[in-house]
Structure formats: C-alpha cells, structure tokens
Amino acid sequence: MLAPKDCTLFSGGAPGTEAFFGALAEEYGIQEVNFSFEGHQAERTRGLRVLTTDELALKDVSLSYVSRLLKREYTRAPIFRKVLQSICWQVSNGYEVYVVGSILEDGTVRGGTGWGAEFAKICNKPLRVFDQSKNGWFHWENNIWVPENDPVIRHRLFTATGTRFLEKNGKAAVEALFARSFAR
Predict the structure, then answer these.
(1) pLDDT band with cut points at 50, 70 and 90 for residue 59
(2) Model-level pTM?
(3) Dihedral (CA of 144, 149, 154, 155) sign
(4) 69 Rama sector, left if φ>0, alpha if ψ -120 to 50, beta otherwise
(5) Of 122, 143, 140, 132, the residue nearest 171 (C-alpha)
(6) 135-173 confidence digits (pLDDT tens)
(7) What pairing do the DSSP bridges indicate for beta strands 8-11 and 31-37?
(8) Is the pLDDT of residue 74 over 90?
(9) Res 69: pLDDT
(10) Half-sphere exposure at residue 90, Cβ-oriented, CA atoms within 13 angstroms
(11) Average pLDDT of every residue of the chain
(12) What is the per-residue pLDDT across 84-121, written as a single tens digit (0 to 9) for each?
C-alpha cells in the first residue's frame, strides 16, 4: 500500500468524477493538483493550478486530430481547446491514469473524457477505466480493453478524470480503489 502523504493526484477539479477523486484525496491526506485555466469553473479549488496561456500552448492539440481519433466531431470553441490542453497537463504529470465513464464499441471512452483516455494511450501510460454501464474495471493492454478485478493505484503520482455524471456504482468503485491502494 502507498503512504498517502507521499502521493499526488493530478486532475481538473471538474464536477463529478474529478471532484469525487479530489474529495477522497483530501480525506486520505493525498496532495492534489487541479489544472485549470482562466475562465474555467472548477469545483475543487484545493491545489488549484491555473495554467497560463503560454503553458496551455505547450500542450496544444489539433481538434481535427482529436475528432478523427475519437471518431466524433468536436467544437472549435477556444474554451474546448483549453479543456483538452489542461487534460494533457493532467495525464502528462501522472504515472498512471484512472477514468470513470463508458467504453464505446470502437474502444474509445464516451465524451470529453475520451481525450484523457486516448492521450494516456498515446503517452503509453497504464490506463484503467471503470465503465459504469458495464459495472466493472478495465485496463488497456495490447490495443484492447481487458476486464480487471480490484485494481490498485501503484504509483505515487496518478491522474484521475471522468464523467461529470458519476453514478452510485462509480462512486463505490473509486472508494474501493482508494481503500485497496492507500494505508489509513
């Protein structure tokens, strides 16, 4: 088990999954870094790290590329680009990535959360998704999702992102993940 005081959660502090991971991190005594940007509404302000325009530009991403990769059309709005850039900061800083959402038939994860999962794949980071509709954990291995029972956070620097619509089973899965991973 990891000592919570030695760990850091990287996230975005958004409502739902990110806020829930953050609240548990605070409860366990885990450091928290929530990447945000000017004009972004973060629910979690503990460890808030507001990225500058120059810092966001360091993680710039082509919306055409993201749309093609995720097989859906994403808006060209500047705020959406900043969200994608901040997700890149989250994923880049963690050694493993945890996501709550829904895995689609094409292997991507539903919604904007999908970019966090895809960027983790691109960066070759250990990636786990709790699929709320399938009620189970999966990890990405050899280009497929493999069911996994009772994953454990193994790295002291980890990233969490996910749906804003966190359901009861998603909350229970994250609570159990923390209980298995961290000494109290």
Answers:
(1) confident
(2) 0.91
(3) positive
(4) alpha
(5) 132
(6) 999 999 999 999 999 999 999 999 999 999 999 999 999
(7) parallel
(8) no
(9) 60
(10) 34
(11) 91
(12) 889 889 999 999 999 999 999 999 898 777 888 998 99
* Gyration radius of the chain over CA positions: 15
**CA 95, CA 82: separation in Å to the nearest integer?**
22
Tell me how far apart the alpha carbons of residues 165 and 145 are, in angstroms, rounded to a whole number: 22
Cα distance between residue 135 and residue 38, in whole Å: 36
As given in the structure block, the two tokens for residue 51 are: 């990225």
Q: Which residue has the tokens 């691109």?
A: 122
Structure tokens at 92: 């880049």
Hunting for tokens 């689609």 — which residue is that?
Answer: 104
In 3D, which of 174, 38, 161 has the Cα closest to residue 109?
161
Question: What are the DSSP calls for 34-89, one per residue?
Answer: EEEETT---S--TTEEEEPHHHHHHT---HHHHHHHHTS-----HHHHHHHHHHHH
